[in-house]
Design brief:
The protein is an alpha+beta fold and 196 residues long. 14% of the residues lie in helices and 28% in strands. The protein is built from one helix and twelve strands; from the N terminus they run αββββββββββββ.
Length: 196
């Protein structure tokens, strides 16, 4: 009997010891660790049409040089700035990162370069049917530096602030003829490239 009690006590002690040992093993398995996690984002240098959600770089809509509506007997000077581009209503504006302090801008000669010289002055021309109305495009609001029709680029200085600025393309019609022209909508298409 005494042996059986000793065996039972020993077995109980072993079980208790094993239970405590397993609690100890579980306590040793829990732990913690710490370290660092880096975060980053790369903002690339560039420009986009203000208000546009597109990140496209080709086929962009820079808007319309709208000289308005005039009687067919109109003569004189009209000016226009680009409006209604991909960013929506109002003047077409571009936003560039602050590190972009100059743009290289080129404007094609359009579909009718050199036409309409008997009606007015300008290296490009709006067309309706077989009639042409010459006009010019400039890189500055003062209309002093015209874009070449061969699409050679002009440099345009930017403020370097990251704020939106007007697209640096300004149009001018100078109709010198007093003769009336056929009534209709005169149009042209210019290809514009901005580089930085």
């Amino acid at each position: 009997m005494k042996i059986a009690k000793n065996i039972a006590a020993t077995a109980a002690a072993l079980c208790l010891g094993m239970g405590l040992a397993s609690i100890g093993l579980n306590a040793q398995a829990a732990g913690s660790m710490s370290g660092t996690l880096n975060a980053q984002m790369v903002l690339q240098s560039g420009c986009y049409i203000s208000g546009s959600s597109s990140t496209a770089t080709t086929g962009l809509n820079f808007g319309l040089l709208d000289f308005g509506a005039q009687p067919s007997t109109f003569s004189g000077v009209l000016t226009a700035t680009a409006s209604g581009g991909a960013g929506g209503a109002g003047a077409t504006q571009i936003t560039c990162s602050p590190d972009v302090t100059a743009l290289s801008v080129s404007v094609s000669g359009g579909n009718n370069p050199g036409q309409g010289g008997s009606v007015g002055t300008g290296s490009r021309a709006l067309k309706f049917g077989t009639s042409y109305l010459p006009y010019e495009v400039y890189s500055d609001a003062g209309l002093t530096t015209a874009f070449p029709v061969n699409a050679a680029a002009l440099s345009v200085t930017l403020p370097g602030t990251g704020a939106a600025v007007a697209l640096p393309i300004h149009g001018r019609i100078n109709k010198t003829s007093v003769n009336a022209m056929p009534a209709g909508t005169y149009v042209d298409v210019l290809q514009v490239t901005l580089s930085w």
